[in-house]
Design goal:
Strand content: 25-35%
CATH topology of the domain at 92-199: Immunoglobulin-like
Strand order of the largest sheet: 2-8-7-4-5
Order of helices and strands: HHEEEEEEEE
CATH superfamily of the domain at 92-199: Immunoglobulins
CATH architecture of the domain at 92-199: Sandwich
Structural class: alpha+beta
């Protein structure tokens, strides 16, 4: 009884194969080792961290890393170019010139350090160097004889990107008292230069 059952099973299997062959079909082959399902996660890119001497060589596909390195190197270069740009020099007073006459450009045309009592107007020309977006120059004129006396104090704003000249003046409708005088120049409230002069008698 057991033998007949096994014979029927084998015959059924053979018959099934013959029927498939007759229809031009083959039974699906079952691989011994079914393939593993492909992962949908993209492979991680190769690390661009430089390796120490004696470590494993970098992957052959290093072109993207090289481009990234070139781009990262360009950024510091541009930043270095900005950092190395020369800084503008601060405003400083280079020279003070006194006189009793100026030209059309308000520059001293007749300099001197001794003036007549009848000179109604005296000038102080202040030459500056450097740059400033807005500084304040002040000229303080003083009479030094006796207990001293402040004659005038005048301020002017200056904005410049290079050498400049700022001219101050002091006027007296009467005769100047004879004696010693000085003009003191301040930049943003700090004294930076002093020029002495005299008024002659007569």
């Amino acid at each position: 009884m057991k033998l007949a059952s096994r014979t029927t099973t084998v015959c059924s299997a053979v018959l099934g194969s013959l029927l498939l062959s007759a229809c031009g079909k083959q039974p699906p082959a079952v691989p011994a080792n079914p393939p593993v399902a492909a992962s949908t996660t993209a492979p991680a890119p190769a690390a661009t961290v430089p390796t120490a001497a004696g470590s494993a060589a970098a992957p052959a596909t290093a072109t993207p890393a090289a481009s990234s390195t070139a781009a990262s190197a360009a950024a510091p270069t541009a930043a270095a170019a900005v950092a190395t740009a020369p800084a503008k020099a601060p405003l400083t007073v280079a020279k003070v010139t006194l006189g009793d006459a100026v030209n059309a450009e308000h520059r001293i045309s007749r300099p001197g350090s001794s003036f007549a009592a009848s000179d109604k107007t005296l000038y102080a020309s202040v030459a500056t160097e450097g740059s400033s977006g807005g500084a304040t120059l002040n000229a303080k004129w003083s009479y030094l004889e006796g207990q001293g006396q402040l004659v005038s104090s005048v301020s002017q704003s200056i904005a410049t990107d290079g050498p400049a000249v700022t001219t101050f003046k002091v006027e007296n409708p009467d005769l100047w008292p004879a004696g010693k005088y000085k003009v003191e120049i301040s930049l943003d409230g700090k004294p930076v230069a002093t020029q002495d002069f005299a008024i002659r008698k007569g």
